[in-house]
């Protein structure tokens, strides 16, 4: 059972930028469930998509794996996919160490390699599935485009990129409504006004979401044969792009 997220529950004099440090790693399962609407559905469906797209003797990448929720979901659905292996990558030492513990708690025939590394430095090759689960939004725009190009180049024909993100919307009224609904979701999950406000201040300089239109334009420019939003709840969602 994970610890409860109380990181922003007391007033903070000087709020620094949000980082995936030891404190966050300790409470991350609680934080993500109470902060991201539809997160459990996304994790479950990532496993289902991996079952459909993962091919024998290929690589599957979970880039920005945090504690390994998407990796675990894919591994469960990839039993029998002979020779396929999962590369779970994160640059947070605290996340990587806990990810290893979570993976070691369950036996599987699917080999998983947990790598502590910046995802921008990872070599993508012979990939049938690549997952960016709420990861791309933390990179600069230039790095996003370079990483997506690297992923496209490393995907086999028919391979899939699964991209989960927070979204911004072109229509101001719709954008504000979806933000308000997300805050209602957090209130319903027990977060106080202080916690919502301080978390927003901490993360606004390190997470810069894109619009769905921007994601589609990138996929088109890269050459993906098909791409679409397969899940959305308020201003959070997930897309697939097939090479």
TrEMBL record:
Gene3D superfamilies: Vaccinia Virus protein VP39. GO terms for biological process: methylation; tRNA wobble uridine modification. S-adenosyl-L-methionine binds at residues 39, 64-66, 90-91, 118-119, 133, 200. Pfam families: Methyltransf_25. It comes from the Bacteria. One of its GO terms (molecular function) is S-adenosyl-L-methionine binding. InterPro entries: CmoA (IPR005271), Methyltransf_25 (IPR041698), SAM-dependent_MTases_sf (IPR029063). It catalyses: prephenate + S-adenosyl-L-methionine = carboxy-S-adenosyl-L-methionine + 3-phenylpyruvate + H2O. Residues 60-159 form the Methyltransferase domain. Keywords: Methyltransferase, S-adenosyl-L-methionine, Transferase. The keyword Transferase applies. The keyword Transferase applies. Its EC number is 2.1.3.-. CDD domains: AdoMet_MTases. NCBIfam families: carboxy-S-adenosyl-L-methionine synthase CmoA, PRK15451.1. Catalyzes the conversion of S-adenosyl-L-methionine (SAM) to carboxy-S-adenosyl-L-methionine (Cx-SAM). Belongs to the class I-like SAM-binding methyltransferase superfamily. Cx-SAM synthase family. Homodimer. This is Carboxy-S-adenosyl-L-methionine synthase. It comes from Vibrio palustris. The lineage of its organism: Bacteria, Pseudomonadati, Pseudomonadota, Gammaproteobacteria, Vibrionales.
């Amino acid at each position: 059972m994970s610890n409860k997220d109380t990181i922003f529950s007391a007033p903070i004099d000087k709020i620094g930028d949000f980082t995936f440090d030891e404190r966050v790693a300790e409470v991350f399962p609680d934080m993500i469930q109470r902060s991201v609407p539809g997160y459990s559905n996304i994790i479950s469906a990532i496993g289902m998509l991996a079952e459909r797209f993962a091919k024998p003797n290929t690589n599957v990448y979970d880039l920005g794996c945090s504690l390994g929720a998407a990796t675990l979901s894919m591994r469960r659905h990839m039993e029998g996919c002979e020779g396929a292996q999962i590369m779970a990558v994160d640059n947070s030492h605290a996340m990587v160490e806990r990810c290893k513990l979570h993976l070691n708690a369950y036996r599987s025939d699917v080999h998983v390699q947990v790598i502590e590394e910046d995802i921008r430095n990872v070599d993508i090759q012979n990939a049938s599935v690549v997952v960016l689960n709420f990861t791309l939004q933390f990179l600069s725009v230039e790095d996003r485009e370079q990483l997506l190009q690297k992923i496209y180049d490393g995907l086999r024909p028919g391979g899939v990129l699964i991209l989960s993100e927070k979204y911004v919307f072109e229509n101001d009224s719709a954008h504000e409504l979806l933000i308000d609904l997300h805050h209602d979701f957090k209130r319903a999950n027990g977060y106080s006004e202080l916690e919502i406000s301080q978390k927003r201040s901490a993360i606004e300089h390190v997470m810069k979401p894109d619009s769905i239109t921007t994601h589609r334009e990138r996929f088109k420019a890269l050459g993906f044969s098909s791409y679409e939003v397969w899940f959305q709840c308020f201003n959070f969602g997930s897309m697939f792009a097939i090479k």
